Amino acid sequence: MTFFDDLPEPPQRPRQPQPLRPGWSGPPSDELPGVVHIGEFVYNSRQMVMALKLVEVYSTGCTLDLVWSVRRGDESDREWRDVMDQSFNRPRSSLDTGTGLQLGVAFPDGRKAVAAGPGPSMHEGADDVTGPVLTTLGGGGGSGNDEIVQSTAHYWLWPLPLDGDTRVVARWDAIGMPESSLALSGEQLGQGLGKVRRYWSD
């Protein structure tokens, strides 16, 4: 017997039920999404491209997987550093949407949402939120050098728009990207919804 063998067992604590998360707060934690490969440009010019690579569809909403790249033209070193700084500027609140990437969606019924705009709070009544809601998710990143800068970002869109085309709209004034858009069809999202699988069957 060693010194630690006869230590008392800690008391059994009651199991805490998993709190219910409202659908607008993010993807369900118990689903494998249906992946819809989009591979279309939101914007494409000689110096910059932005594309929607894919959409991960869940039973309640979907994630948008965006990528963008800016290549250097005749900018000086200082000007290029400014471009690189701006290329990673994704607004986190409604107070700074005028300088960084502005991203929004327009639902087929006319409703719209803007990422980083005033959105619901976990402290507000979750049952009162009707949407649509577009929020930034973690997992994005980027890199840059003397010739090119690239970055990615992920967004959660709720609820899942299946009736008609939803338009993804982006603008980035600071790096010369005018308002541009891409149509995301309800049929494509419906196909992804048919591939969703739950982790647990009970």
Count of helix runs: 2
Provide the gyration radius in Å: 21 Å
Unreliable spans: none
Helix content: under 10%
The largest sheet, given as strand count, sense and whether it forms a barrel, is:
5 strands, antiparallel
CATH architecture: Sandwich
> Tally of extended strands?
11
**Coarse shape:** globular
List keywords for this structure.
globular, Immunoglobulin-like, 202 residues, 4-stranded antiparallel sheet, 41% strand, 5-stranded antiparallel sheet, mainly beta
What would your notes on this structure say?
By secondary structure, this protein is mostly beta strands. It has a single domain, classed as Immunoglobulin-like, CATH 2.60.40. Helix content is 9%, strand content 41%. It contains 2 helices and 11 strands; from the N terminus they run ββββαββββββαβ. The protein has helices spanning 77-87, 186-193, and strands spanning 31-32, 34-44, 48-57, 62-71, 102-106, 112-114, 133-144, 148-158, 165-172, 177-185, 197-198. The strands form 3 sheets. It has a 5-stranded antiparallel β-sheet with strand order 2-3-4-8-7, with helices on one face. The protein has a 4-stranded antiparallel β-sheet with strand order 6-5-9-10. A hairpin with a 3-residue loop joins strand 7 (133-144) and strand 8 (148-158). The longest helix has 11 residues, at 77-87. The model has no long low-confidence stretch (mean pLDDT 86).
